[in-house]
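Hi support team,

I'm opening this ticket because the web form for multi-chain structure prediction keeps timing out on my end. I have pasted the exact lines I submitted so you can reproduce it. The total is 1512 residues across two entries, so I didn't expect it to be a heavy job. Is there a limit I'm missing, or should I split the entries? Thanks in advance, R.K.
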Amino acid sequence: MAENIDGQDNLEQKRTDPNYWQSFKDLYNDISFTEAKKHEFSKGVTDDFDLSKLSNVSRRKFIALVSASAALAAAGCSDYRGNGKIIPYRTKPEEITLGVPDYYASTYVENGQDYGILIKTREGRPIKVDGNPDHPASKGKTSAKAQAAILSLYDPERLQQPLRKNSSGILMKSTWQHIDNEISNKLASINGKEISIISHKIVSPTSAQTLNDFKQKYPSAKVYSYELFNESIRNTAWQKCYGDKVFPTVKWDQAKIILALESDFLGTDGNKVEASRLYAQRRNNSDLDNFNRLYAVEGNLSLTGINADYRMRLRPDLQFEFVMSLLNEISKHTDSTIIDSAVMNQYNLYEFAQKNSLYGNILELLVKDLLKNKSASIIYAGRTLPENVHIAVNLLNEILGNTKLYTQDTVEQNDYSLSNKEELENLIQSMNSGSVGAVISFDANPVYHLASDFGFSDALKKVPLVISLSESENETSEFANYVIPISHPFESWGDAQTRSGYYSLQQPVISPLFYTRQKEEVLLAWVTGNYKENIYHDYMMNNWQKNIYPALNEMLDFNRFWLGALQRGIVKTSVDAKHVGSFDKTSLNSLSEKPKTNTGYVVCLRESYSAGDGKYANNGWLQELPHPVTKVTWDNYASVSVATAKQLNVEERDVIEISIGSRKLNIPVVIQPGSSDNTITIELGYGRTKCGIVGLGTGFNANVLLSKDGDVSPWIYTSAEIKKTGDTYEIISTMEHHPINDPLVSGVVKERKIILEGTVLGYKKNPNFIQEQRPENTKSLYNPHDYPGVKWGMSIDLNKCTGCGECVVSCNAENNIPVVGKDQVKVSREMQWIRIDRYYSGSAENPKISLEPMLCQQCDHAPCENVCPVAATNHSDDGLNQMVYNRCVGTRYCSNNCPYKVRRFNFFNFRDHFRDGYQQSNLFDLVYNPEVTVRSRGVMEKCTFCIQRIMDARAAAIREHIPFKGSDVRTACQDACNTEAIKFGDMNDKESEFYKYRNHELGYYVLENLNVRPNVTYLAKLRNTHSEEA
Amino acid sequence: MNIDYTKELALVEGNPRLADIDELISRPLTQPVTKKYYIALSISGTALLIGVYSLWLTLYYGIGMWGNNVPVGWAFDITNFVFWIGIGHAGTLISAILFLLRQRWRTGIARFAEAMTIFAVMTAGIFPVIHTGRPWLAGYLIPYPNQHLLWPNFISPLLWDVFAVSTYFTVSLLFWYMGLIPDFAILRDRTVSKVKKTIYSVFSLGWRHSNRHWRHYEKVYMILAGLATPLVLSVHTIVSFDFAVSLIPGWHTTIFPPYFVAGAIYSGFAMVMTVLIFVRKIFDMENLITLNHLERMAKVMLLTSSMVAYSYLMEFFIAWYSQVPSEQYDFWARVVGPYRWAWYFMISCNFLIPQLIWFKKIRRSVPILFIISICANIGMWFERFVIIVQSLSRDFLPSSWHMFTPTLVDFGVLTGSFGLFFTLVLLFAKTLPVVSMVETKSVLEGSQPHHYNDDHNGEVGAGHANITAGVGAALNGGKNGN
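Hello R.K., no limit was hit. The queue was backed up. Here is the completed structure from your submission:
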């Protein structure tokens, strides 16, 4: 604005025509106003805009900052999981293709059995365990525990680095270097005092070699091994009869008649995977003449018992008398007079039967069957039975010529058979007397496992140096000066030999997640004095090259042989199985003593189906796996018969006090139909006092009832006293308990046609008997949909299903199913997509059991689909009932309308809800199958027939330009099924094997009269009884 | 108590002057708020807050806070929904069907019943939203055009519910508001408060009691009544389809539509009776809402109770007759199964206790009617509980059977629904005329023109009201309209 240069006069002139004025000052041209008009801003207004006072951020810089912060906000606020760095492969490992799984052969050792496994890894992380098809015993199948081990690998409560007790007795974190130095020094200055290494059964030759080396370096070292449940009685009996140290393997598939005495060979007794596979081979509905017949005589209803064609209940302590009576009866019909007739004549099978309310007519049939099927039957006594029963059973099999069914190919690692009672007693004595300088618990938990009257834990307090090697803290590590974290088997090298015919190899599939070393490495470091990476790998290769490879007579050079062996996970040897020796009659001396007759309560301790010996207590999948018989989860209990419960005046959930001598246990009761009277059966492996958050407070520690001297056997105790305490404890089962005689409930299964079944004879007579029971072809108002391409279906052979629950664990792993916890199972919110329904029929004393795996039936007329208001569940053109998680709003209408109740609802975010977000640990993110969505709360979910596997196979077929076939796909449950009871495939493919099962004359559908057209065919169970009536 | 039923009973007792009616009805709106009202409001408000807290827990943690489980996917949530929808039925029935049937006795109770309908439907409407696992996605139930070309599933009864309930709510609200317009005008004319006058003016839509207004009003009211009538039957029919269309034993029953409608009317009348017994006492409206009104409502209850009882029996008969094992089992389990106590509750409250209404003395005894109406409400809640929970807990496969046990949060939400309903009722009673002023005047003795026994201008009413110009003038209100 120009300055006024004209002075007052000109202003005067201008005043004459002020067109528009704003104020009087303006009108009269007040001098101050004109002055003020010269300035655009009044005084002080612009002070803040003083350039020197302004920040020196330029406009450029400002915009740069704004965009930078916008970018930051966009990047930072996006809900990116993990927030860790994502680094792409710069040089891609040769074997890894993103999105494509790799499988590694390995071995899982469980309770002295080796299972060949294949571990599926995705982008370097193991996510699923299946069986190794090349493994001679496993044949592509594996146990529930091996499958669930993948969850234990990612257990955030594993020990993550070495711990060391400080001067005030508190465990503090330490370093490997420090620990190695201290322990090496201490071991070096042990001054000839004993170093006791306590281990589980050693089946690894290289492990044994490591221990040998350790003993060489520290000559005062001694190795003790134990198993809570073991075959030692069976083995010593065998040794007495035949001279070989170990009981042979049984060719179950060659047995036409099987008599299981207190034995759960389909469940926990021995190699379950192999036994059930071989057993089920003889349950083939297209080979009726070779159908096997299973008799079971047992105290409590076991997995084997529920599969038996004839089952009788008998107190375990009467088994000896029973076997002797049977022996007497059999020898009457054979010309063998091995035993003194004076001894034999004390026993009479039918008198025994009458006295103990066994069915005489069934026993008659049994005797006939055994005599008719000489060399084609097997009598198998449970490992908890005393030695004399085993000897008598060996004799029976000998008389009947059944020794042909044995293969003497089992081996034990030399020098490392299980320690007997005297050895352990001596150990504890020396510990007490101070002659033991160090105890190393070598991945064992003797404080929890050993019978309390050994006084092990008190003795341990007197040992100056206690070292515990374990994956996570346990009862023994509480006493340890040093707690050494060891790697999970999937992070470790190893080998195993349990049979003469092959070695199994174990290779790591992930580098250790934490600062752990595998247990052999720990010892090797102390032996060699310096630890380096791969120390055990090198050691093992070396051992193989030196000690095993030469005997194999391989054509390949060692390195090539080694890589091939690792790839297959198995090395077969050409060692022939030994022949079973001749029967040593001196062993029969122990049969001559007349057993005491007990009428009091007998307590029978058994291995748990899921918790093992307690090792798996912190594994949610196994804890939540329903018990195959009672369907109880998360707890163990005392199972008693109906009559015993009445006699004790207890009901389910009432807590009883069991006292055997001075040993006492309070435990709740579950009333088990089919249990023998006055028998209390308890599964061990629960009630851990020192374990992770999952296992803490589950069940009761019945190990306290163990005595080092045993009674009838280390697991069977008579003269127990039972008292009702008046307390109750909640036992949770996934199936509601209905009194078996409730008129409301009995008959429901039959009249609704939930289960159809028959007998072998009935089927032979009328092959159409199932089809005749099916409803007439039900009409539909609508035209059926066309499924011109592939249409998926499943078929479950109930002759082969043993109800073990392997499929449940496999499904858990494959489909990212959360663990919900006891409180949620209590309100029936378990999430497992497949369950095994178990129904009793008949009397409460001798019930018949029917099993039926239940999963989404993928109905053609799915009732869930039409009620979903948002079309979140709908039908695919290959016949699948799909579930669109993103679309689901969670009305639960579909679940209400599902007649099979196989839909599962996320009532909470279970990962967050279970044990204070335990499953939300970052580590558990690694176990999830990346092909399957992790469902949020409020979403319905269900079995999808492993749609991710279908899509994978379809993509592969498209990629390779080959027609997509139904047999290309195997579901997770099918993979896991030990007995191949589950078949899956394309029902439109008339050539396929599946087509046969789909249209089998034994096939029926559950609740078929509802006309929802389910696509899971059940092949009716045939009981191999002597009558045509089911 | 000798009532001559051959003659129509006086619908308004005590021969009030027209001005008295306005005065009486609008009194609660002008009087200062009393302590009693605050006590009532704080009780219902507390219940509402309990509900809000329970709902917050549900929304924050998930449906798991309730007792629902896998066989029993629906429990208190849908029980409450059907219960409240049922409560809403009396209003439409009274306002629409009874209107079309020229049942003039509806006048005294229509306004309140309609308001209760709206509040009950509002309460009910909460449940379909909150019962979902992810209520923030409940919008998926609404058909809106979207780029995924995804529509809701039009064959799902739950979707029909959405349409049925929202339609019902809209029509009921319009109907209610329609009837309120002349009353708003009266209030506008009476009030001296500027604020109130503005509000009433807005809501009265410029009503001037003119003949033309009345003609339009009567026509629209008639049309809306015609529209609402099928809704009375359709809403609960469709709600019953939620069950009838499924295949669960105990749900899959063709008798459900009439059975549900009868039950709904039964429970609706019971709730209206419960509330009106208080209202007529507190607001001195015993002359407007007379004992005769209560008696007539009791008779409707007796009728609908009998229909419901017939349905109960018919269900059992069909279960037996059908020879479907699961169906037979389900009904047998109702009587002897683990939820039998709920069934006994239902039978005694919905069938046995209402039989007392046969007795005139009981029909005309307010305390007993009150007890019966409370029983009816409890019974009808249990009816839905039995149908939903009992049937689901024992469906086809015994392996999946499981009992339902409610949690505290379940009860909290139930309490909250009552809290919301009664809070709204209380606010309504204090802000709007609980009885239609204009309609009451129209049913005063002598308010209608008649031409018998006189040439014209029947001078009835003993001079209380000088009714000369027929209804229109009478309805102008006792004031000098300008």
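A quick check on our side: The two ends of chain B are 45 Å apart (CA to CA). Let us know if the file doesn't open in your viewer.
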